[in-house]
Design goal:
Distance between the termini: 90 Å
Order of helices and strands: HHHEEEEHEEHE
Oligomer: single chain
Structural class: alpha+beta
CATH topology of the largest domain: TcpA-like pilin
Number of helices: 5
Largest sheet: 5 strands, antiparallel
Length: 178
């Protein structure tokens, strides 16, 4: 009889106890809170990678368009828009992953007119500003953030200045390369 009773108890207790349910819900709540807190950073980090790749693609697309004797004089944002993926172009305007229009302008470097290009780019959240510039800034001639130079020609990227310069909620970046 004792055997039959213990078997009946095991059969009856097939669900969770109230304490087990409360613990499970507590764990789910903690994990959900962590996801909400840190999940936005993951999305933001993904956009930083997309923008780093995008700026790199613009550089590799435009370098072959430099003409002997003229440099980049005839290269504008509208011209470049015809050479890149349509996903980054809206109505003939090049748009970054944050929705900001890019302006590509020929500039002089080392006293030679039109031998470099400048890309004015914007709307970078502070954390993405730092990540994007840190990943590709050293490959540029110069980089400014909100008017502050974070990389001068011939110098490495200044990480301390970059940290301070990228502190705004929305940051504008000017990339210069040749």
């Amino acid at each position: 009889m004792k055997n039959k009773k213990s078997m009946m108890n095991r059969i009856k207790q097939r669900g969770f106890t109230a304490i087990e349910l409360i613990i499970a819900l507590g764990v789910i709540a903690v994990l959900g809170g962590a996801l909400l807190k840190f999940g936005g950073g993951l999305m933001s980090s993904g956009k930083a990678k997309v923008n780093s790749d995008f700026i790199g693609m613009l550089v590799s697309t435009t370098r072959p368009l430099k003409s002997p004797g003229v440099g980049y004089a005839n290269l504008t944002s509208t011209v470049v828009a015809g050479y890149i993926d349509e996903g980054f172009v809206s109505g003939g305007t090049i748009i970054n992953s944050y929705g900001s229009a890019l302006v590509i302008t020929p500039v002089s470097f080392a006293g030679v007119p039109n031998n470099a290009l400048s890309i004015a780019d914007g709307l970078y959240p502070s954390q993405d500003c730092n990540k994007t510039i840190s990943s590709i800034g050293d490959s540029m001639l110069s980089v400014t953030v909100n008017g502050t130079s974070v990389k001068a020609s011939g110098s490495p990227l200044n990480k301390a200045t970059l940290q301070t310069a990228c502190s705004a909620t929305s940051n504008s970046v000017v990339w210069t390369y040749n």
